[in-house]
Amino acid sequence: MPERTVVIASAQGLHARPAKIFVQEAVRQPVPVLISAGGKAPVPAASILGVLALGAKRGAEVTLSAEGELAERALDELAGLLARDLDAEPDPA
């Protein structure tokens, strides 16, 4: 199963706004993606409650994993998103 480990770059961690942006992108992926942090069990990246429950703060390492033909591309896209400071970017809506 392909994996990516990435450090959370958002100033306030993976709180409501960055989590929402991340989950929206995870839903768009062609394969299901899991995310884990801090030794907690992996949760679906498409679950806002699961992602928020991880409590990932700035600088925390999270691991993304997925299976399927397009898993590598999905992981690259989501890892790139988490590596950016989503708090500093304008609201995409």
Whole-number tally of structural domains:
1
CATH architecture: 2-Layer Sandwich
What percentage of residues falls in helices of 4 or more residues? 25-40%
Coarse morphology: globular
| Highest CATH level, the class | Alpha Beta
Secondary-structure element series: EHEEHEH
Average pLDDT score: 95
By DSSP, the count of extended strands is: 4
CATH homology superfamily? HPr-like
CATH level 3 topology: Histidine-containing Protein, Chain: A
Percent of sequence in beta strands: 15-25%
> Segments where pLDDT lies below 50 for 5+ residues?
none
Q: Kindly name the structural category.
A: alpha+beta
SSE blueprint:
Layout: E1 3-7, H1 16-28, E2 33-37, E3 43-44, H2 48-53, E4 61-66, H3 71-82
Antiparallel strand pairs: 1-4, 2-3, 2-4
Helix pairs in contact: 1-3
Overview in brief:
The chain is built from 3 helices and 4 strands.
Q: What does this molecule look like?
A:
It is a single chain. This protein has three helices and four strands; from the N terminus they run βαββαβα. A four-stranded antiparallel beta sheet has the order 1-4-2-3, covered by helices on one side. The protein starts with a strand and ends in an 11-residue tail after the last helix. With 93 residues, the chain is an alpha+beta fold.
Keywords:
alpha+beta, Histidine-containing Protein, Chain: A, 4-stranded antiparallel sheet, 93 residues, 3 helices
